[in-house]
Write a structure and sequence with these properties.
One of its GO terms (cellular component) is nucleus. Keywords: ATP-binding, Hydrolase, Nucleotide-binding. This is Helicase C-terminal domain-containing protein. The protein has 167 residues and is α/β, with parallel strands linked by helices. The chain contains seven helices and five strands. It has a five-stranded parallel beta sheet, sandwiched between helices. It is globular. It starts with a helix and ends in an 8-residue tail after the last helix.
Length: 167
Amino acid sequence: MDMLPELIDEGRRILVFSQFTQMLALIANELDEAGIGWVSLTGDTRDRRVPVEDFQKGRAPVFLISLKAGGVGLNLTAADTVIHYDPWWNPAAENQATDRAHRIGQDKPVFVFKLICAGSIEERILSLQERKAALAASVLSEDASALAKFGEADIAALLAPLPKLKN
């Protein structure tokens, strides 16, 4: 998360989404070490209003959010930057999370970052997301020739050994 201090220096208000609460805890530790304020929302958060209000009122520049706990039903127009720390299989879940910043009342452009590690399963998940998005678009456009199914070959490609990176 080396990019956070620079983004904060630019005055950015940042939502960081992860599907793993343990990853959010690791990020929180890094933010503490860097002296960066943050709030969080996970499935364990008792009162969702408190961190939302703290972020919206500018008490913390970073909001760490569990994808499943905070990906829907929040209005976070104070944010102008969204970071997806790790990809989720379903692009709609990430789009819903991003939409927390794209709400009525948003008066700034919103920048979205997806952190993807080269040569990892994350790249394959991103490819799967792109295929799912193309599939959804083809269904909506009634272009049946573009329809594709997710099958055994797709699963095999996702789980195949990763290529060795050259140093």
